[in-house]
Structures are given as structure tokens and as C-alpha cells.
Amino acid sequence: MGAPQGHTGDMTAHGDDSGVTGSALFAGSVLFASLPPRCGAALAASSRTSTARPGAVVQVTGEPVGRLVVITAGALHVVREDRSGHQRHVRVLGPGSHLGLVEFALGCPARHTVVAAEATTLTSVSHGALRSAAAACPVLNDSITRELAWKVVESEQHLASITSEDVLTRLSAYLVSLPGSPRQDGRIRVRLPLSQSDLATHLGTTPETLSRRLHDLIASGAVERVARREFDLDHRRLTGA
């Protein structure tokens, strides 16, 4: 992926969703799952929906952030760029995930560049509306605190994985973590949300090493490739259960 040069214009806003209930608007989002109906409705009334085409730049490092974004369909790549211009995929955000919570809590500019991995639908609510909702609904404050705490835990787990586990273990754990659909033979079909080159960067290895470890998993029968980015997984073999 080349360095993003700013927003591409491949995003289309659909306006406010004031007629949509909060539960439907933020379906799948852990952050808003426990909200009472009145709080969800207040957020829905101040929200808006947009779509991003594949490759569209949703956010640029350093720019002001004024909205919390929930991914309702599709996927986003969160990218960090070092001083030399080298890019590293920090994570992939799928349906139900959110973007901008840390910036909301700290009042800081965007910490990462974010690019649509595929056609993606986004629902966003302004930080001001989120702040008002949190003041009116203490349960939302509790939810925000839990989500920020989970971000710390996930960061610690990822760092421990990179520094203490081998590539085969990291790859197996990543594949098992992907959402998938059960097959008749008991396997789970998953689709990689990013290229193998980007996945190698995400797992802290080289494309060549990742390719060898993936071949090892295929040779062992734990993984079967069914398309360029689609695989059938034997979870028992991958987890050693």
C-alpha cells in the first residue's frame, strides 16, 4: 500500500439516520450494546452514515478527530507510518468495531491513518453528542472505560505475542481469531481481510517466512486453501486442542 496523500473522495455520506433506532444503528457494537433505548435513540438522532470504497482514506494521522466511527459493514486497515515512511498494519477493524474512542478520551488528533480494505459502511456520531449521551447515561461512561481498558489489554497481548511466540504460533492464533462460517465437514471457512504481505507486517515477520509457515499449516492438514484469500481451518489442530 502506498502512503495515503489525504482523503480520496471515494466516500459518500448518507445524511442523518434520525429515524433509525439506536439498537439497529449500532448493531454488533460492544460499546453501545448495554445502552438503554432512550440513550441509543439520542445517539441515533445525531448520527450519520457513509460508505467508503476500497482504498478510500477514512482518516489521516495528525488530523483533527471530531467523531466516533462504528463499522457496520466491511473492513478498515489501521496503518502506522514511521519516520522513514515504512508502513505497518496495526490492526484490521471489522463490523462492530469502532474508531476514534482514544481520540475522544484524550482530545488528541488522529493517531493512525485508516484506509478502507473493501467497500465499507460507517456510522458516526460527533464527540459532542457522545459526551452529552455519556453525561445523561452513566452506563455509557462505564462502557467507554471498559473499551479503553480492553485496548490496553489487547496491546499488551499483541506485544507479548510478537516478542515471545514463533511465527507459526502467531499465524495460527490470527487465523483462529478471524470470523468464519462453519462447513459440513466441521471446518471453519475464513477470509483474510488483508494481503499476505500486509499480514506479514502485522505479525512482525517477512512475507517469505509467513509463506513458509502457511505452507507448513497446509501440509499438516490444519489449513486448506480454497481461494486466494479463503481458507478452511481445522480449529482443533490449529489450537492444539
Q: N- to C-terminal separation?
A: 37 Å
The helix/strand order is EHHEEEEEEHEEHHHEEHHEEH
Mean pLDDT equals 83
The count of strands amounts to: 13
- Sheet-strand content, in percent, reads 25-35%
Overall, the morphology is globular
Rg over CA atoms, rounded to whole Å, is 19 Å
Structural class label: alpha+beta
Spans of at least 5 consecutive residues with low confidence: 1-6, 15-23
H/I helix tally? 9
Side-by-side strand order of the widest sheet: 1-2-9-4-7
- How would a textbook summarize the main sheet? 5 strands, antiparallel
Plain-language structure description:
- It is built from 9 helices and 13 strands.
- Residues 1-6 and 15-23 have low confidence and may be disordered.
- It starts with 10 loop residues before the first strand and ends with a helix.
- By secondary structure, it is α+β, with helices and mostly antiparallel strands.
- α4 (127-136) packs across α5 (138-164), α6 crosses α8 and α7 (196-202) packs across α8.
- It has a 5-stranded antiparallel β-sheet with strand order 1-2-9-4-7. Strands 3-8-5-6 form a 4-stranded antiparallel β-sheet.
- The chain has helices spanning 22-25, 37-45, 101-106, 127-136, 138-164, 167-177, 196-202, 207-220, 235-239, and strands at 11-16, 47-52, 57-59, 67-73, 76-81, 87-93, 98-99, 113-116, 120-126, 180-182, 188-191, 223-225, 230-233.
- It is 39% helix and 26% strand.
- It is globular, with a radius of gyration of 19 Å.
